[in-house]
Amino acid sequence: MTAKTNRDTGDADDVAETAQVAAEEESPAASSTEPSEASEAPEAPEASGTGRRKRRVRVIEVIEDDEELDDVLARIDAEDEPEGEPAPAAKAAPKPAPKLEKAAAKDEPEAPAPARPVLLGLPLPQAVALIVVVAVLASLAVWQWRSASGKASEADERAAVAKIARQYGDVAANYNASNYQQQIAAAEKLMGGDLLDRYKNQTAPGIVNTFKSGQSTASLTSRSVAVFVGDVNDKFATAVVQVDIEGSTPQGATQAPANLIRLALAKIGGRWKVTKQYASGENDQTQAQNQNGSTLPTASPSTSPTKKN
């Protein structure tokens, strides 16, 4: 068996020792071994100092005996081992358990804080405050709407009362031989309650008797000048209408400007009706004492005729 070994030594002593060992092994086995080839580098001069360079020598030998090969390999392995290997460095002592636990506790992520309750994407207190503000604003808006609606409704009612009062002033004393029937019907549409009953029973028959024959040339004309609306609620209202009245008879003409007629109105069938009327300075008691029982102003001829403009 042939083996080839390589050996690198760092100094001249190792080279000499290796050559001596090879010579001893070749002498007993000269008859059975082939000449060995060795290339040695010239012996390096002895080192004169620690800083001198070391030369490396490669020794090659051929060994055919198994036992000798084993011995050579064993010696080579022994020489390869360092003479004084440093002891392994001592491991650092482990930290005390409590400190490790403390370090582990620091490394662990902190548990997330408990989620705060939210409403409408906001924290609960802010959401509640927002809801309260919205509720207050909504209530205020409803109140304003109702107030505006109430004012609009009241304005509409006052306008309706003023319209009836003005129409009543235009027909209150506006009769002649050609229009008395139409005027009676128009007046009855504007009246209601006790005033309507008294008008039908007392005033209307007297007007018919006056103009029925067609021989009367007397006439009455009334025109509303201004209307003042008083209190108005859901069922009752008051108003004052200023009326200019003119009367014409064969004896002459009379004028009664700026007559004030106080009216009491009530809502009957969803429409405003005049239920009472009072002349200026008149009330229920003095009206009952009226001998004529008339509910409309009457024109009496003046002592001296007045020309119309």
What's the alpha carbon Rg, rounded to whole Å?
70 Å
Average pLDDT level: 72
Number of helices: 7
CATH class of the domain at 152-288: Alpha Beta
How much of the sequence is in beta strands? Answer: 15-25%
Task: Compute the number of strand runs.
Answer: 10
Descriptive report:
- With 309 residues, this protein is of the alpha+beta class.
- Helices cover 40% and strands 21% of the residues.
- The chain contains 7 helices and 10 strands.
- The strands form 4 sheets. A 4-stranded antiparallel beta sheet has the order 7-8-9-10. Strands 1-4 form a two-stranded antiparallel sheet.
Describe the structure concisely for a colleague.
Residues 1-112, 277-309 are annotated as: Disordered. Its main location: membrane. With 309 residues, this protein is α+β, with helices and mostly antiparallel strands.
Q: Secondary-structure blueprint of this entry?
A:
Layout: E1 3-4, E2 8-9, H1 12-26, E3 57-58, E4 62-63, H2 66-80, H3 97-107, E5 118-119, E6 122-123, H4 124-171, H5 180-190, H6 193-211, E7 219-232, E8 236-249, E9 252-268, E10 271-279, H7 284-288
Antiparallel strand pairs: 1-4, 2-3, 5-6, 7-8, 8-9, 9-10
Helix pairs in contact: 4-5, 5-6
Subcellular location: Membrane
Biased composition (Acidic residues): 62-71
Biased composition (Polar residues): 277-293
